[in-house]
Design a protein that fits this description.
Largest sheet: 7 strands, mixed
CATH class of the largest domain: Alpha Beta
Helix content: 40-55%
Radius of gyration: 21 Å
Number of helices: 12
Number of strands: 17
Strand content: 15-25%
CATH architecture of the largest domain: 3-Layer(aba) Sandwich
Number of domains: 2
């Protein structure tokens, strides 16, 4: 199919974004003043910016998210576009690369807003990078939806900043509840990345919840992203005799840590968060992550029709590849934005912000999405288990704040 080949070709170019810093996909057209407000972009199109780690150590995060966003936008455009007021417009996606560096985020987002004239911004995955990009959107009055930054401080950057993922207080609680209720663990050790806002908050929230459930944190050891040698830290953890290790980091470090832990004879389960969600983890860690678990946004083997339809469409678009949680969240973020555009009837920033904030019971792939007064999504968490060389659905944990 021609559209499929075009999308895959563009994705191939993005994955080689060494020479090209931004990729534009969707409808073209000259820049015209939007008669309904929000003068960016052309009157015949809606421009959506995406800032993402397309290259660098966390590149699978950015690429998966971008693929999910592109699939959603392709479906919208194939159906005729998005109805904004009295006009129906095609959606154009502009993706720019943060290179997995928080220091790049501000400039990348400014370019999307000032040069590419986007009406809204999606991104980033890593909380540390979103914390740098969000203030730029807030100052410009351009709504931003992060698909998957779970640190609470991201949406605290201002009332134009939203997310469609759960937040770390709930993710930490869910990890602790699973450890206590399902694994019957009473003693844990923490291994925390001090360079990551995500890792630090998630570790703190897990520890608070775990202790509150009667557990004991017997050791807390710290490292920094990108380190290669963990034997001394893991030896200290082994000496504390935990029944499990909580490791809320990114997949880039998890494989190395898990391999070295097993080499030191540490056989207890390792539990992580959604930062584990990458095909690279299993590829690099192999058997070292058997009997390990992580909290995530969805499970591709969930039999619900909505999830299986998404998995089918994604595989058809991307050569049979199974979508990870980042792809599903990118897909949901784009669809939440498009639905809000239709409700707002304009691309004006303040009206679009209000429409996004009113999102309630949106039928997302990652769960029904309702945004609370802090612009955070209230939704369940799933736990995946590594068993027989595959990640399988193990449990679903509801947010205790749901329905309040």
């Amino acid at each position: 199919m021609t559209v499929r080949r075009t999308v895959l070709s563009l994705m191939s170019r993005v994955s080689l974004a060494v020479a090209v810093s931004a990729v534009v996909v969707g409808a073209g057209g000259c820049e015209k003043k939007d008669p309904k407000g929000g003068g960016a972009g052309g009157a015949s199109e809606v421009r959506v910016g995406h800032y993402a780690s397309m290259t660098g150590p966390e590149a699978t995060f950015g690429r998966s998210t971008d693929e999910g966003i592109r699939l959603a936008i392709k479906e919208i455009n194939d159906a005729g576009g998005v109805k904004v007021g009295e006009t129906t417009r095609r959606v154009t996606l502009v993706t720019d690369d943060t290179e997995s560096q928080s220091t790049k985020a501000g400039d990348v987002v400014r370019k999307l807003i000032d040069v590419n004239k986007v009406h809204a911004v999606l991104g980033e995955v890593a909380s540390s990078i979103s914390l740098e990009g969000a203030p730029v959107c807030q100052e410009a009055g351009i709504p931003m939806i992060t698909p998957s930054s779970t640190n609470t401080r991201v949406t605290e950057r201002g009332d134009y900043i939203f997310r469609v993922c759960f937040i770390d207080p709930f993710q930490g609680f869910a990890g602790a509840k699973f450890a206590v209720d399902e694994l019957k663990v009473k003693k844990v050790a923490l291994l925390v990345d001090t360079a990551s806002a995500y890792s630090q908050q998630l570790a703190d929230e897990f520890a608070k919840a775990f202790v509150g459930m009667g557990g004991e944190v017997v050791s807390r050891v710290e490292y920094q992203k990108g380190e290669k040698e963990f034997n001394a830290r893991l030896t200290k953890i082994r000496e504390a005799s935990p029944e499990a290790i909580y490791l809320p980091g990114y997949y880039t470090d998890i494989a190395n840590i898990a391999i070295q832990a097993r080499q030191l004879g540490i056989r207890v389960p390792i539990i992580g968060g959604d930062g584990w969600d990458s095909e690279e983890l299993a590829k690099n860690a192999g058997d070292a992550i058997e009997n390990c678990f992580y909290t995530n946004h969805y499970a591709p083997d969930d039999p619900s029709p909505e999830i299986q339809e998404f998995v089918r469409a994604y595989r058809a678009a991307y050569n049979g590849k199974t979508p990870d949680g980042l792809a599903a969240l990118g897909y949901d973020a784009a669809r939440v934005l498009i639905a809000a555009l239709e409700r707002a009837g304009t691309t004006d920033g303040s009206a679009l912000r209000d429409a996004i904030a009113a999102t309630k019971d949106f039928p997302g792939v990652t769960g029904r999405i309702t945004l609370d007064r802090n612009r955070n999504a209230v939704k369940p968490i799933v736990v995946l288990e590594r068993k027989g060389g595959a990640w399988i659905f193990r449990a679903k944990i509801e947010d205790p704040s749901a329905g309040r």
